């Protein structure tokens, strides 16, 4: 935990209210996000119990699996989910704008610009918590290798037509959510904790109800008290007043309410199946419907509070102005969406179960680059985040006291002005450390020359006095001998320099998977590349 | 050379460190030059002559007429290797491939007539040896593969970095220290844990997972660590691949002209001079990372080391050598701790002492080190602070003595925080784990404890 986060958390404890950890919103929020509040069945990984889903705050669709272990009912649930999610995806997939991308020309091997489609916007999915993202990933994995009757007439349990496609999209979203700063699939608790610091542990922050209680306590009371209520308060029947955001449900709910209801449903179904004539069947169908309706009501009662909480959280986030670089990162999300759309359209097979060596290395490189980009952009967009970096010695701000023009040696002397800056910060500067400031949105580099008044780069002592930092500006001053107007700091300017780079360089290109070297096992075998669903075992079927 | 007796099982058989090391080196060179395998792996404990081995192997490969590329991890390592090669054989044509940043290499290389420097691999074609960092090599494309490569610090290289360069060579010698800090990723990589080619794992673990038949050697003698330190470091961090010190007890001596003033820093200095280890224990307390008292204590120990006129006697020279600021280093776990120590040293008027984190001290050597213990003053023990390699680096940089500064209560902290890292299927469990290494080193250091209330 950084010093500034620790401080914010201490202040939150003292005041009983969450403290701002950001002054702008660092994640993109869509106008019409698709909110998904899933519930899962205890004891069986990836068996959905139900979900509230939709883009309309007042009209969520309730999907329920009355007997979660029944594969047909599960498929029906997934087919319904596909019918809601996929039209949403399709709507965004068709609205495109033209963009340029550099590609390697296959014949000449040169990098050339090509015009391609870029989706003008992309659907955003919001789940309540990090566990929700895991569940999306799990659903994706369980669906993408399924075969429909059309794909494989022999298959014993064909999936409904659009289910494998939904699996591929959810897999893509789940995978994209691992890229730092991406906003295609967001867990609301994570976005909220990015913007507010509460006085509880980060584990407790994963409880959406408790988190919202700290940020926005009802009736302006103590957030700490409201959070405890949200976490623990139960009604006379022992049920939580604020159900957990899921996908896991409260055991008391499972044992006391859900299990008996499912048992009644099973009994009704057996009786309906055993009905001997039409009249009896009609009666028993009524019982079955009633039993199902009861389960639907139970699921609705446990998802609706979370649904409302998610929208409340979105309101809180929308009240913050969007950070300047957010749109840049959202464009990357749109590229990601567009490229997956193209892969699906091109008839490529679903994502393999495991990444090959080259894909894994490429993903890791991308994510590390995005992490560095995110950290830099958040600091540049937000003085409060920058304050944290300054406290950590990774940036410093101050007033320009003096500028002395000097020139580089060599045939064509270039300007290398020396800038003296007074700062209260304590940056970790070493000999010739590179520092950067933002000049019209572009980073301008300078190097550390020394502290004025002390010798060399020994640095100031531990006392709290101001220090004078001397920097030599290195670039962005034009090609001529005299620097371009406005490109050199002037006396009296207040500037902020960072020790971290503002933009990320692309890494080296890795070999193609077919050219995986011997150190990494050589090219991946064909067998691994073909995707088959998991084998169906006896335990899979009732 | 001193003759030592091997402990326990080998009792009675004379252990000649020089002969043992020579035998190991011969076997490595035989496998490298004449073996049939595409790779050879060499494990080297701290100060076991890894750089000497790399230089010798490079010279022999070049002499055998095999074009050689050398892959190191940092520019400092690359420049150091170039200088060592030129020192051993000034006539050898060496290429230094560098980045296109300003000042990409050590200016000392400009004085070497047979070292050609370029940012393009094409300019260096045909030279006997070409040296660069893994990051720079990754950008080299479309060239004829080298017959041979040497990968230095291979345990600190990430698997994905090896993937980017492995197409450039046919065979390779991988040299590194398995006990030092593992490579790390700044984002989570759990998704690939257990895969043989996990991109965040070390290059050697991927290499051996796919090529288990490759010959593995190790260097058996540490020339850096004194006889007082080698057993502790070997037991705590290399329990299955033990090594020994190249010198015996009494071969090295640390003496001070000025007598102790009875203060904590002076007493711990005397203890360390006598036994090779010293533990300055401050009262138990939970503190911020840059614990002002502990930081000041570290600075005071350094100040007294210099003020008391230390002299180090070792096998390197007949006469004692003065213990000067450049022979002392301070090691910490975090960068802000290093910065705080630097500021405290500046306050005491000691500017030239190296103060850095474990990551940056890797591969360096000093006479005396002062270490701020990674768990000092902490309320919890996280995976970062328990990492075996971090403690190993901090405890194995010295030729004479190491002084650890720590708050009391480490055993209690360790008892409260058992290792809780999730077990990943398919991942080789590292032993000893950080918890175990912390405990065993602490037990040993406790015998050299000097309690002090500043």
From TrEMBL, chain A:
<feature type="region of interest" description="Disordered">
    <location>
        <begin position="502"/>
        <end position="542"/>
    </location>
</feature>
<protein>
    <submittedName>
        <fullName>Uncharacterized protein</fullName>
    </submittedName>
</protein>
TrEMBL record, chain B:
<dbReference type="InterPro" id="IPR041679">
    <property type="entry name" value="DNA2/NAM7-like_C"/>
</dbReference>
<keyword id="KW-0378">Hydrolase</keyword>
<dbReference type="InterPro" id="IPR050534">
    <property type="entry name" value="Coronavir_polyprotein_1ab"/>
</dbReference>
<protein>
    <submittedName>
        <fullName>AAA family ATPase</fullName>
    </submittedName>
</protein>
<keyword id="KW-0547">Nucleotide-binding</keyword>
<keyword id="KW-0067">ATP-binding</keyword>
<dbReference type="Pfam" id="PF13604">
    <property type="entry name" value="AAA_30"/>
</dbReference>
<keyword id="KW-0347">Helicase</keyword>
<feature type="domain" description="DNA2/NAM7 helicase-like C-terminal">
    <location>
        <begin position="291"/>
        <end position="407"/>
    </location>
</feature>
<dbReference type="Pfam" id="PF13087">
    <property type="entry name" value="AAA_12"/>
</dbReference>
<dbReference type="InterPro" id="IPR027417">
    <property type="entry name" value="P-loop_NTPase"/>
</dbReference>
